[in-house]
Amino acid sequence: MARKTDKSRRKLAQSEVGTIRKNWHGRLKVALVYPNTYHVGMSNLGFQTLYDLLNRIEHVVCERLFLPDDAGSHTGRLLTVESQRPLGDFDIIAFSVSFENDYPHLLTILEKAGLPLRSSDRASPHPLVIAGGVSFFSNPEPIADFIDCFLIGEAEPMLALFFDTVSLDLLGQDRQALLETLARNVPGLYVPAFYQALYNPNGTLKAFEPTADVPAVIKRMFVKDLSDTPTCSAVVTPDTTFKQKYLIEVSRGCVHGCRFCSTGFIYRPPRFRPTALLKECLETGSSICNRIGLVGAAVSDLPQIDKICSQVLQTNTHLSFSSLRADALSPELLAVLRQSNVKTATIAPDAGSARLRTVINKGISEEDILNAAETLVANNIPNLKLYFMVGLPTETMEDVETIVSLCKKIKHCFLKSSQAQKRIGEITVSLSSFVPKPHTPFQWVAMDDLPTLKTKIKHVKNGLKKTANVQVHADIPRWSYIQGLLSRGDRRVSQILLLAHINQGNWPQTFKASALNSDFYVLRERALDELLPWDFIDHGIEKSFLAREYKRALKGKPSPPCPINDCTICGVCKANP
């Protein structure tokens, strides 16, 4: 099995364009680990960006490592892509994590590397284990027992300072002294060992305080101006979701303020890259391949997006978009989609009823959605994918029924437009269970329990099962429940995570055996004045603003889009002038 895995790993490396290989002599050796398979990890632009940024540091050599496809039966050593070395050969293991459900894989990788799982059990000469990624600058606490230090925020302003501070000599010193040096000198660095949590008799958090001379609050780091920081694919490979496509990040954050969306809040203020820089990135990408993907929370919000599309229309480049709003399909965007031979477009109504779309502050109408469906099909895009959530705050079964009725209305517009094109495609309805996320207006709400989520999903499936050319795919509520546990848990949740690892991923057995009540973290509504496990992270957003948005949601009141700058409403621009 190990020989087969090694052969597969070499084949993946040979298919890459852009692989970075550096001499190890005299350099800090960093293993950049994505705790999922190569296919998933290399589809993540953030992971690729880290790989490029780390290797740009002269005294650092960075290599990538992924979870094997056959992780459950894999018995050989885990080896890096570039030099086929094991994790134990590296000075630093850097985990990049975007999704909470990958936390168990992190423990699997540490164990397969022969390293103690808990940070407190590791010391020199064990590698220093660091971690970053969007899930951690939301809430790192459920995984805190296993990580030496977290980088809270965007990588660009942190990596250079971190690696200016750390050195081979420092890594060889006492681990406590090393971590103290880093915590005092690197803004945004969080060392869990230097903080303690105190709890009330009812299990809620009483206090979270430092036990060493380190900041009481961790201020997340971010790039204020994206004008000089292009973010593009470092490696192009056919073995990803995007299949030999060059990715370009056009923006960070989102102006629309959907109340369920973590990205829209923890990446505030919204920032866009200038057109001139994006045109340079397009030219670079076109020299590598003719398929380019623009990445952002809402690409259609990009200023002068029509000019970029006009440039693309003059070339043989195929362009795709990670996200487009139903109310922003300009003629130029549609022309690019036609030229790029796009066969499937995505619309995200998120909720079926206008009432519930107001609750979540989606900002699009049913008319916008129906017009978008009809327009996309009329422009030779035969297939549609529709994203909805069940379990949203204040949702009733009447709201769930409107998902069915809206899909049927979309199908009617879709069919009418398809007949004109003499070609009928497919509509795929993707249902996910709502998971409340930290640092959003819905961070206080309780998730629906599993029977309720299953009932809602079944209702939508039954309502659409006789509708021709419509397929319904839904997530598994149990995994959404686990995501809720790992996204909103405190440090005690690490006990559940470790038990799940011991039980080889058998979560029902884990929940049954655990001394902790997981429902306490998932199904319980939080009080607005409760101290939350992630409150020690300062994103610049005032908690009072999130509470006001939560109250507006419960009253069914919308809020305007973020004005981007020179605003004091949420606190971000005031905190970061």
CATH fold title of the largest domain: pyruvate-formate lyase- activating enzyme
Q: What is the rounded Rg?
A: 24 Å
Number of domains: 2
Portion of residues in helices?
25-40%
Shape: globular
Uncertain runs = none
The total count of helices amounts to 21
- The SS-based structural class is alpha/beta
Task: Find the count of extended strands (DSSP E, 2+ residues).
Answer: 19
How widely separated are the two ends? Answer: 56 Å
Biggest β-sheet description: 6 strands, mixed
Oligomer: single chain
Overall CATH class of the largest domain:
Alpha Beta
The CATH architecture assignment of the largest domain turns out to be Alpha-Beta Horseshoe
The largest beta-sheet arranges its strands as 2-1-3-4-5-6
Task: For this entry, give a set of tags.
577 residues, alpha/beta, pyruvate-formate lyase- activating enzyme, six-stranded mixed beta sheet, four-stranded parallel beta sheet, 21 helices, 19 strands
Notes on the protein architecture:
- This protein has 21 helices and 19 strands.
- It folds into two domains: 2-219, Cobalamin-binding domain (Rossmann fold, 3-Layer(aba) Sandwich); 245-488 and 540-575, tm_1862 like domain (pyruvate-formate lyase- activating enzyme), CATH 3.80.30.
- It has helices spanning 2-14, 38-41, 45-56, 103-112, 156-165, 168-171, 175-185, 263-266, 275-288, 305-313, 331-339, 354-359, 366-378, 397-421, 450-464, 477-488, 493-502, 507-513, 519-522, 543-554, 572-575; strands at residues 28-34, 60-66, 92-96, 128-132, 149-151, 189-190, 195-199, 205-210, 218-219, 246-249, 251-252, 271-272, 291-295, 318-321, 344-350, 383-390, 427-433, 470-474, 537-538.
- The radius of gyration is 24 Å and the shape is globular.
- The protein has 577 residues and is an alpha/beta fold.
- A six-stranded mixed beta sheet has the order 2-1-3-4-5-6, with helices on one face. A four-stranded parallel beta sheet has the order 15-16-17-18, covered by helices on one side.
- Helix 4 (103-112) crosses helix 17 and helix 13 (366-378) runs parallel beside helix 14.
